């Protein structure tokens, strides 16, 4: 059995009907690949369609205000992807006359484009014979060939890339790479794969040796930091509130939020109320403070954010206060957006 032939045959019979598979336009391939980094297809698809409609060409994306790009991206997470996306669109539109680089090496020079994304664009748009290596590829290859290399190790990427390249048909890189990713996403899934009905079960080392659950090997664990956010939802005499843009580097850069009181450890409600009443950024007298909803734990890749929302009422008119209708148009982290939709008017 030739691995790539069976894989591509499986792909042609089982692939999902996705819009970016109906084109070789590098703009749409790039857009889809950036959106699908660390994101499931089901979650990313509506965003792709929204961007496709709002920005049908790279020039449209380049000319758009950053806030519009971030607003459409809202809820997709990893917002640095959106900022890099916008910066790259400007570079391609203004410096490259709207034409994406046509080789893997040149694609790597684009902001926000790494090995995987460059290989995906180069192979799918230009059929350049470069293999893609992502979580799906690690899983398929490690199980099929019985590879026990720790995929979080420094040597793993080169090893798996070489192996994927050895299986890749030079004249059909586009279908092979997409087939590899699709097989990992639909068939060779992380937990409880349907090995009995897998086309590779006779030759799969993991299946024939009972190691499906232990491959791929990943020893390094992500260190998670806990942070404690108290958002202060101000309501003044006119019913206006305050929001601000996060300009510091880090999570949610250039997104909007309510005034924030962050503590190093969890703090009892009574102490939080005192801290809010004495908050140095408020140039008004606080009439009352109360919690609006229970704590929400918002999990990011390296951080768990323990978030509370507090209504802060004042009889004063707040300087630079804005109405709900105005502030809701800004881009927010999804946890704040959800709060505004469900609990705040």
UniProtKB/TrEMBL annotation:
Single GO MF annotation: 8-oxo-7,8-dihydroguanine DNA N-glycosylase activity
Native source species: Flavobacterium alkalisoli
Domain HhH-GPD residue range list: 35-186
Reactions the enzyme catalyzes: Hydrolyzes free adenine bases from 7,8-dihydro-8-oxoguanine:adenine mismatched double-stranded DNA, leaving an apurinic site
Family of this protein: Belongs to the Nth/MutY family.
EC number assigned by the record: 3.2.2.31
Gene Ontology BP terms: base-excision repair; mismatch repair
SUPFAM superfamilies: DNA-glycosylase, Nudix
Cofactor note: Binds 1 [4Fe-4S] cluster.
Cofactor or coenzyme needed: [4Fe-4S] cluster
Designated name of the protein: Adenine DNA glycosylase
Gene3D superfamilies found in the cross-reference section: Helix-hairpin-Helix base-excision DNA repair enzymes (C-terminal) (1.10.1670.10), Hypothetical protein, domain 2 (1.10.340.30), Nucleoside Triphosphate Pyrophosphohydrolase (3.90.79.10)
Function, as annotated: Adenine glycosylase active on G-A mispairs. MutY also corrects error-prone DNA synthesis past GO lesions which are due to the oxidatively damaged form of guanine: 7,8-dihydro-8-oxoguanine (8-oxo-dGTP).
Gene name in the database record: mutY
InterPro entries (UniProt xref): A/G_AdeGlyc_MutY, DNA_glycosylase, HhH-GPD_domain, HhH_base_excis_C, HhH_motif, MIG/MutY, MutY_C, NUDIX_hydrolase-like_dom_sf
Taxonomic lineage of the native organism: Bacteria, Pseudomonadati, Bacteroidota, Flavobacteriia, Flavobacteriales
UniProt keyword list: 4Fe-4S, DNA damage, DNA repair, Glycosidase, Hydrolase, Iron, Iron-sulfur, Metal-binding
Pfam families found in the cross-reference section: HHH, HhH-GPD, NUDIX_4
